[in-house]
């Protein structure tokens, strides 16, 4: 009888420890999310399932062109690509990205879209057109765009995104199976 009670206690301890590990992992390391909508196509498709890396934000801020998940509202998270970092001035002209008034910056993740569609993919704008009316991305914020520039609610509409709103960096797509791989 004592052995059965001991076995049950071992199982209960194992379940409790496993639950604690899962909760801590989701809070501090990584979290699964589902892409909702077409704003990141062709990079990510609607209903793709991803792992979002939360731990890297403990050591550094996101880099340019990282795909990040952030709290857009109290109930809704968005997934977009970081285009501008604090202190950057962003301009788009004739589907070309310019940072800090310098030379054109390539966006290889858009190459197929720009080749297949001769019409304007990203409407022309500069920092003065963005909510907040600043000449540069403010300290503690980033400027984000969806890869599907024609159908994306991003910094052109929301303004700058506080780094504190960022949940994590999209790392791996795990579903559907045909899309398994690292997020570029």
Q: How would you describe this structure to a colleague?
A:
The model has no long low-confidence stretch (mean pLDDT 87). The protein has one domain (32-182): Umud Fragment, subunit A (Ribbon), CATH 2.10.109.10. The strands form 2 sheets. Strands 1, 2, 3, 4, 9, 10, 11 and 12 form an 8-stranded antiparallel β-sheet that branches. The chain is 20% helix and 29% strand. Strand 5 (90-93) and strand 6 form a beta hairpin. The protein has 3 helices and 12 strands. The protein is an alpha+beta fold and 184 residues long. It has helices at 2-28, 111-116, 155-158; strands at residues 30-34, 49-53, 67-71, 77-84, 90-93, 96-99, 104-105, 125-126, 141-145, 161-162, 166-175, 181-182.
- Low confidence ranges: none
Please write the string of helix (H) and strand (E) elements: HEEEEEEEHEEHEEE
Mean pLDDT: 87
CATH class type:
Mainly Beta
What overall geometry do the principal axes of the alpha carbons give? elongated
Q: What is the radius of gyration?
A: 20 Å
Name the CATH homologous superfamily: Umud Fragment, subunit A
Helix content: 10-25%
Beta content comes to 25-35%
Q: In angstroms, what separates the terminal alpha carbons? A: 57 Å
Task: List the domain count as a whole number.
Answer: 1
Most strands sheet: 8 strands, antiparallel
What structural class do the secondary elements suggest?
Answer: alpha+beta
């Amino acid at each position: 009888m004592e052995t059965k009670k001991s076995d049950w206690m071992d199982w209960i301890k194992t379940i409790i420890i496993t639950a604690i590990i899962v909760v801590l992992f989701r809070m501090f390391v990584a979290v699964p999310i589902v892409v909702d909508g077409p704003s990141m196509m062709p990079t990510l498709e609607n209903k793709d399932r991803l792992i979002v890396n939360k731990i890297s934000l403990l050591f550094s801020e996101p880099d340019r062109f990282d795909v990040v998940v952030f709290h857009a509202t109290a109930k809704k998270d968005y997934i977009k690509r970081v285009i501008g970092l604090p202190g950057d001035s962003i301009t788009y002209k004739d589907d070309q990205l310019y940072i800090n008034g310098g030379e054109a910056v390539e966006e290889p993740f858009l190459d197929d879209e720009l080749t297949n569609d001769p019409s304007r993919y990203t409407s022309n704008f500069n920092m003065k057109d963005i909510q907040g009316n600043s000449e540069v991305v403010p300290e503690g914020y980033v400027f984000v765009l969806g890869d599907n520039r024609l159908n994306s609610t991003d910094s052109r509409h929301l303004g700058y995104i506080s780094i504190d709103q960022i949940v994590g960096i999209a790392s791996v797509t795990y579903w559907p199976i045909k899309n398994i791989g690292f997020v570029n």
